[in-house]
Amino acid sequence: AKAARRAVTAAPDLPAQVAQGLRQRALDGLGLARRAGALIAGHDKVEQALRQRRGAIAALIEAADGSLRERGKLRAIAPPGIAVLDDGDAAALQAACGTLGPLVHGVLLKTGVAEKILADWHRWRRFEGRPALHLPAGWDNQERPAGTTSFPGQPSE
Questions:
Q1: Is the Cα dihedral 149, 150, 155, 157 positive or negative?
Q2: Rounded percentage of the chain residues whose pLDDT exceeds 70
Q3: How many CB atoms are closer than 10 A to CB 24?
Q4: For the range 18-22, what are the long-range contacts, defined as Cβ-Cβ under 8 Å and sequence gap of 24 or more?
Q5: pTM for this structure?
Q6: Considering the chain, what is the average pLDDT of its residues?
Q7: Packed helices 14-35 and 112-127: angle between N→C axes, nearest 10 degrees
Q8: What integer pLDDT is reported at residue 155 of this predicted model?
Q9: What pLDDT, on a 0 to 100 scale, did the predictor assign at position 157?
């Protein structure tokens, strides 16, 4: 009100609007990652990536409505300590990524795009009062100057 120099009232549903905006931003990041080649989708491709590219994986993506058995299998072979993005259903993940079929399993590769997505996802979860993401070691959710290393051996974009 002081900055506007007049009476200001917030919409009663402002928290819901902010939560929806944060959710959409986090999901939209997955589409950006897919277009940048930093997202691998599909159960078999994800399993192969988890076995062969362990050091290059920043996060495991799981649809909340996916099979608990299959999700458990992939978590069992995932590198310890990676973030698990399991807040969206398959249809929402599909819409965000623009895949042909439902997106149930995916991995996010360690890139600057991944860091942005993890920051957005972390912010969304914290705003809604849910537990924070388990983030990769050394990741501090702070803005980083260009050219700094955010993941071991991977420069930020």
A1: negative
A2: 85
A3: 14
A4: 18/127, 19/124, 19/127, 19/128, 22/120, 22/123, 22/124, 22/127, 22/128
A5: 0.74
A6: 81
A7: 160
A8: 44
A9: 42
